[in-house]
Amino acid sequence: MTILLYNPLSKNRKARRTTKKLVDHLKKTHQPFRIKSLLKIEDLARYVNETPADITLIVIGGDGTINSFVNKTFALPFKHRTYIRRSGSGNDFLRSVKTQPPGPQTVMKLTTDHTQHYFINGAGMGIDGMISALVNRSRRKNKMRYFLNTLKAFIMYQPQTLETVIDGTPRTFKKAYLINTNNGAYIGGGMKLTPKAKLSEPLLDVIVIHGMGKVLLFLVFLSVYFGLHIHLKRYVFLTKARHVIATMPTPQTAQCDGETFPDTLHIETSVTDKQVELKPYHKRLRT
User: Fold this and answer.
1) Per-residue pLDDT tens for 113-140?
2) What residue ranges define each of the domains in the chain, with the CATH number in brackets?
3) What string of DSSP letters covers 137-202?
4) pTM to 2 decimals?
């Protein structure tokens, strides 16, 4: 038996079409299933916990849906076979999953001035948070919209002095545009920001882009799609860590798997002991 958990708001409400295609496939292949909107489940943790362990779950949505699922079920033992069917605007987590060996993924923790949140792909603050906020306010969410909002953020964003403590070692970056602490390789609909990140690894890949003008920043941005920016060591700081503290002097927008947190001066990210195994769904599977 399979339960389909779908987010009807994912990808500008196009999830219903994706869900219908999956439903038609399961009917055609005579696989028993039930379907449930995530918006109609008041307590997802309780719902999942009361679902028998031999039931397969298929979560239909993008990075935001996956992030919400991980947060709401964080306290539960991971007992179900769980698959992800892409239906969002970003799908960066699935991009990383498909390029790495099968296995569990480590869940990370983000703490800001105002909240605590878990994440499975990436978190940070700076210009990436501004871009995420602009994209979230857009009526259409696609690669072109992300690109246009990135250009808008380049014009608007003012680089900051960034104070960090990375695994206990303090370090200051002048004219910093962003700090990201990632578990996955991709952000922003296919930008290969941390190409060496491993979802199964109990380490965060930390990246700081700093010390450059906006013309060079734009060129770096273009190179990120191919992962070539990591060779610009004068402007791109990369390391691996278990615990990161970052502070900027003026309020920023922090982001966590695309969810945004405005008015943030301080973020702290760390590795947890929690692991999940979310697998990409494809039609050859029989659940």
Assistant:
1) 989 999 999 999 999 999 889 988 877 6
2) 2-106+275-280 (3.40.50.10330), 116-273 (2.60.200.40)
3) H-SS-SHHHHHHHHHHHHHH---EEEEEEETTEEEEEEEEEEEEEESSS-BTTTB-SSTT--TTSS
4) 0.91
